[in-house]
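Data availability (excerpt). All sequences and predicted token strings are deposited with the supplementary files. A representative entry, UDP-2,3-diacylglucosamine pyrophosphatase, is shown inline so that the format can be inspected without opening the archive.
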Amino acid sequence: MVATDLPTLGIIAGAGSLPRRIADRCAAQGRHFHLLLLDGHADPALHAGLTFQTVRLGAAGEMFERMREAGCREVVFAGKVERPSWRALRPDWRATKFIAEFAFRADKGDNALMAAIVATCEAEGFKVRAPAELLGESQMPPGPLGRLSPDGPQRDDIRLGITVARAIGRLDVGHAVVVQAGLVLGVEAAEGTDRLIERCGALRRDGVGPILIKLRKPQQEIRADPPTIGPATVACAAAAGFSGIAIEAGGTLVIDPEATVADADRAGLFLLAVEAPE
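Structure token line:
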């Protein structure tokens, strides 16, 4: 453990292993943290051995109160959260105030929502940190990340995927696109990347398998809901018969990079970080 003067970090945890990796990084640094698991989203089993509290997604006032009680001055949002209906959210007074303010916005996409949540947290006195800031090794430089590289036609598919992903990103629709042999099999919307992969696996043509292309949105609020991949993404792509995954260098977060690359190599998938023009 390394002594640190870093402020106590509040970790608001959704699904997946990203919150645990951030908590483990804090522990390795000797940094104090306070872990809040979002009920119905975060899996307590992934946080075994850690002290945590559970809170409803709609209990914004309780979240802020618990983080203040724990002495948190910085906050990170980590892990996937399925966007609920306003009714299912069961908002408390603070969340109701946020909903009322957000309702008047013209743009109600996921990025717009997360940007508004970040602004609200900072108005409450918390500095919001990006997961990538806390896990610096998770942002990849350009080039092949594993043993395999795409061939010429696959690079053409990646270029097409970048164009389409940028277009849907500007519309705040999603981060990811699936392309095979010059044909767009699907774009990510509300279902998320894993379900996009499964859906496109059923649509795949004969020949070399499809490619997942996943980029940040041009207007991305990187401190919340960054585009991510990890071992689970690789497993899903391999099961669906994909040939590779292309991500944005410096823009897509790779959870557990060593395991992700190793799993891709074992599955025979290329994993490529690309520079994607705006």
